[in-house]
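Example 4.3 (complexes with small molecules)
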Amino acid sequence: MTRRIKRNWIVPVGEKLTERDEIILDYQAKGYLVPSRSLIKTEEQVEGIREAGRITRGVLDLVEGLIKDGVSTEYINKMSHEYTLDHGGIPAPLNYEGFPKSICTSINDVVCHGIPSDEELLFEGDIINVDVTTILNGYYADASRMYVVGETCSEWQRLVDVARECRDIGAEVAKPYTFVGDMAKAITNHAHKNGYTIVRELCGHGVGLAFHEDPEVDHYGKRGRTGMLLVPGMVFTIEPMVNLGGREVFVDEEDGWTICTEDGEPSAQWEHTYYMTENGLEILT
Ligand code: MF3
Ligand code: CO
Ligand code: CO
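Answer. The structure with cobalt (II) ion bound is encoded below.
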């Protein structure tokens, strides 16, 4: 029987090893998961993703002004769609694996992938995640924010704030040559310290030349040095889903998309697309 060791970081024969190659090859030899070279973006590609990110950010800014009691999620979808087209972009969710709308709108106990609808209206006190991914010139930029309709109770407001802190703390920890697991551990610790749980079934992801690329960016973990090694040039999202109650979720059987908390308690999520520089993460959205 032959045993095949998966090698991801391959330096062509005859090419001089850089310092980066040495570090990565060393981790690879020790059995750690390292990226393939195809995940390393060129300056030009990063600039393309950055430009797509400007549209994504523009949509999320626009949505800020639309969030009001009585507004339908379909109206938010329509306005987001038009803004994206007006700026030369394409909404990535539309027709993605059959998704029927241009953005995801996830209210209260909906964790993510909520489908905008004429029938669904915002109410005072609701918390909603709007998730926007734009394609511009073939480049993808993915981000989401939470919005509060008017004012919500202090318990839910705190959930929204801590979810944002979880993402930002994760982004701070993610330095070159740390692992996805180091970041996940920091996110999990912050959520648990505040009495919240982290959803395990959905993760962040590489992004840029496609909607979802490697690596899998898990947000849950207690151990560091797990998951993929993070290397300068990689572009990926961080998007932890933080639950007020239990971490368990289910998929709505009727639409096949909407993910809800099992216990009906609210969930909050913030997302950015990041570029790993030599010094740490740069936000592209
Ligand atoms: N934007 C989501 C993410 O952060 C993916 C949405 S897939 C869709 O990865 F089909 F629901 F749009
Ligand atoms: Co997203
Ligand atoms: Co994403």
